[in-house]
């Protein structure tokens, strides 16, 4: 399975795998501390109104109960605000218990703290609340609220007229072929295996948080603000994350609740959410409603594209589901307009969910492209190639590296697309009707700022440290591969430290940008450690290099050699360090951010496509995804084994998005009605067909010297529209509201 001699580019099993399968890996809720107490939140059972009264008398007297905390007795919790970079990001700004207004179902109204989890849960259940109820608004039809032209979002102010060129009205009016359709994606809720958890410990004015987090550095900054502390006083530790899919990118209100309880009671406090609570106050992908209007010539050239979308938000928080992110550059089109609006609902704050914005956005625009292809009777692959842009037309700048046409061609070839007969229901196999569909996709590539340190030690080992996280995607392994690549130290001799704000500040595990961000920092840190080593070599008495200048020396495969002295063996760095009585040399390095650069020279994106086969049995209304071929143009792949794993995971999630996932809010009380894993259905192994993943290998040197872009999210983008196109091909039913339901297919249109 080794593809190269180099550690980078080689299929590499997770270095943390043995710790996970033997149970040695400690997730947030695995940590125990002397005297630790357990906290269970009390949730509002209305979604709109006012909390009039809390009766805690019974709960307080229950055995093992230490406190029932609420607005009147929890102590001060401040708000947080934006800081520089990604220091102050938070999806729900209102601190818990700040006022008595209930704005969504499951909002925390009290916190039971007890000696055991069971006692805390019983006490939480015994708290009685009296409300003034108002009718909740969880209406799924969205009309945009009357918002100003520039709105504040989680990441800052954004213009609602997102992109514009040419004249769409005129172009559409005179286009010989027109399409005007609205696509709907439901609210979806993140379902990481590991639920959100916090353990908070105070020592004087120092707060330590064990938290399941995709971004420890930002979380430290937000929590420092919420408790009025210098951020040096807060430490956040996240050694392992049982995934997050975006729900753990930014802090949620259970975290300050645990910290406030620990402050009040002077003991460590652990708070672990239930699966049901995971549907309420830790984010979801908002419901979107997207109108797409296309104008084209009879031979399939796009002349006009309008994408107007609306999504729901919570009452207070401006999370922006950026469905238009890719619209303005995915295809070449002279006339274009992208706008958005928002509709407030009595739901918890929205949040990034794997492929935020672009995934639902591409579902709409790629679906429209597939419908246009059918309308024109042009092959959907050909239609896309016909509209391939030469540059990023939204910014008028070149792409750093775009090989989408090659993705389409390779995908078509591997899938056998040329054998497709386009008529609905015309393809059969083993008594089943086949449907074939495809779609393209893209995802942003950029770097967050990052710092790292690397040590080379006298026992021949190395250590790399950066305060990023491994959310199950393979960051531990990638960091070790990077160090091994630079130093020649084998993987098993490399210690990786991450997930701790005591380490050099690392990036969030988000936007599929962690890997791309850490490459320059780790390489620079390794170079700086090596340069110290060469100085040691040249200055240590008795060293074989004693009278050389450091510049005459080089480091190769773990050894110091004299430059140009090709035959010499050199000396292993461990020997040199021992001779000098040094335990270690260390170096540090930084990556500069490219994300958010207002004047980029290149448009940096990953691209890809999916070809999907479904089987349809009309007799029993059974629909299955039976085969997927995916091609990704994602730059250099550092660990193809983990990379394929990410893409396959994305495709499986895409099957869920297309056919299964939706969060449904009860119109009577506003509760997510399917708030458990029996009723909120995700795709599992039994739903997963053979998935073939191919990577094009075009390094993108705009991102880092290896040319590695991100692959965490793009695998999900484009899957749903490929599936709905295949469903149409098999059944003749055009589903424009996800997920595809069996009842949709029983009544052909
Ligand atoms: Mo991803 S939604 O940036 O965790």
Distance between the termini: 49 Å
Question: What portion of residues is helical?
Answer: 10-25%
Overall average pLDDT: 96
Could you describe the largest sheet, including whether it forms a barrel? 7 strands, mixed
Structural class: alpha+beta
Lateral strand order in the biggest sheet: 3-5-1-14-11-12-13
Textual characterization of the structure:
The structure is a single chain. With about 750 residues, this protein is of the alpha+beta class. It is built from 16 helices and 29 strands. It has a seven-stranded mixed β-sheet with strand order 3-5-1-14-11-12-13, sandwiched between helices. Strands 9-17-16-15-10 form a five-stranded mixed β-sheet, with helices on both faces. A hairpin with a 5-residue loop joins strand 15 and strand 16. Helix 8 runs parallel beside helix 15 and helix 11 runs parallel beside helix 12. The longest helix is centred in the C-terminal third of the chain and has 26 residues. It starts with 16 loop residues before the first helix and ends with a helix. The mean pLDDT is about 95. The structure holds dioxothiomolybdenum(VI) ion.
């Amino acid at each position: 399975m080794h593809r190269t001699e180099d550690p980078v580019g080689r299929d590499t099993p997770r270095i943390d795998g043995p710790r996970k399968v033997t149970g040695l890996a400690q997730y947030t809720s695995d940590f125990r501390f002397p005297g630790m107490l357990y906290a269970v939140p009390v949730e509002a059972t209305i979604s709109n109104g006012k909390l009039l009264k809390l009766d805690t008398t019974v709960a307080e007297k229950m055995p093992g109960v230490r406190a029932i905390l609420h607005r009147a007795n929890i102590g001060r919790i401040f708000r947080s605000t934006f800081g520089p970079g990604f220091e102050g990001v938070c999806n729900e700004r209102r601190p818990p218990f700040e006022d008595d207004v209930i704005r969504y179902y499951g909002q925390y109204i009290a916190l039971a703290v007890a000696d055991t989890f069971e006692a805390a849960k019983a006490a939480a259940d015994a708290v009685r609340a009296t409300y003034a109820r108002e009718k909740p608004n969880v209406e799924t039809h969205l009309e945009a609220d009357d918002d100003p032209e520039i709105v504040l979002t989680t990441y800052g102010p954004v213009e609602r007229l997102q992109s514009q060129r040419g004249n769409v009205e005129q172009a559409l009016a005179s286009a010989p072929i027109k399409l005007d359709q609205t696509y709907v994606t439901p609210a979806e809720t993140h379902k990481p295996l590991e639920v959100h958890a916090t353990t908070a410990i105070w020592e004087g004015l120092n707060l330590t948080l064990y938290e399941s987090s995709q971004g420890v550095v930002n979380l430290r900054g937000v929590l420092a603000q919420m408790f009025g502390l210098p951020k040096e006083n807060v430490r956040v530790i996240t050694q392992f994350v049982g995934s997050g899919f975006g729900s753990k990118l930014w802090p949620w209100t259970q975290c300050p609740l645990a910290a406030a309880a620990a402050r009040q009671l002077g003991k460590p406090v652990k708070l672990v959410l239930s699966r049901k609570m995971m549907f309420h106050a830790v984010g979801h992908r908002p419901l979107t409603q997207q109108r797409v209007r296309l104008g084209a010539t009879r031979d399939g050239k796009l002349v006009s594209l309008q994408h107007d979308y609306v999504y729901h938000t919570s009452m207070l928080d401006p999370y922006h589901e950026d469905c238009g992110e890719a619209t303005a550059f995915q295809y070449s089109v002279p006339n274009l307009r992208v706008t958005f609006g928002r509709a407030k609902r009595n739901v918890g704050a929205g949040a990034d969910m794997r492929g935020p914005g672009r995934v639902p956005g591409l579902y709409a625009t790629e679906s429209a492209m597939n419908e246009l292809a059918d309308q024109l009777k042009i092959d959907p692959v050909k239609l896309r190639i016909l509209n391939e842009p030469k540059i990023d037309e939204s910014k008028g700048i070149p792409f750093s590296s775009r090989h989408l046409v090659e993705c389409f061609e390779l995908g078509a070839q591997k899938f056998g697309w040329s054998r497709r007969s386009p008529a609905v229901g015309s393809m059969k196999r083993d008594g089943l009707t086949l449907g074939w569909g495809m779609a393209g996709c893209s995802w942003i590539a950029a770097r967050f700022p990052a710092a790292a340190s690397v040590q080379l030690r006298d026992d021949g080992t190395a250590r790399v440290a950066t305060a990023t996280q491994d959310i199950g995607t393979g960051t531990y392994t990638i960091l070790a591969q990077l160090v091994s690549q630079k130093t020649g130290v084998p993987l098993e001799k490399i210690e990786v430290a991450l997930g701790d704000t005591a380490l050099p500040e690392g990036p969030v595990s988000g936007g599929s940008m962690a890997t791309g961000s850490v490459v320059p920092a780790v390489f620079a840190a390794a170079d700086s450690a090596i340069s110290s080593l060469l100085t040691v070599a040249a200055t240590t008495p008795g060293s074989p290099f004693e009278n050389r200048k450091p510049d005459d020396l080089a480091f190769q495969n773990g050894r110091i050699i004299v430059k140009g002295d090709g035959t010499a063996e050199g000396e292993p760095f461990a020997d040199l360090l021992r001779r000098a009585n040094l335990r270690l040399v260390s170096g540090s390095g930084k990556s500069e951010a490219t994300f958010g650069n207002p004047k980029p020279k290149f448009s940096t994106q990953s691209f890809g496509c999916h070809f999907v086969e479904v089987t349809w049995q009309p007799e029993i209304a059974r629909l299955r995804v039976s085969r997927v071929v995916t091609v990704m143009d994602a730059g250099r792949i550092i660990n193809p084994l983990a990379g394929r794993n990410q893409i396959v995971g994305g495709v499986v999630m895409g099957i869920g998005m297309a056919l299964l996932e939706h969060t449904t809010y009860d119109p009577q009380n506003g509760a997510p009605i399917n708030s458990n894993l029996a009723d909120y259905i995700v795709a599992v192994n039994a739903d997963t067909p053979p998935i073939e993943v191919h990577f094009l290998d075009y390094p993108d040197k705009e991102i880092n010297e290896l040319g590695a872009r991100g692959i965490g999210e793009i695998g999900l983008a484009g899957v749903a529209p490929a599936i709905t196109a295949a469903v149409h091909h098999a059944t003749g039913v055009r589903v424009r509201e996800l997920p595809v339901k069996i009842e949709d297919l029983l009544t052909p249109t």
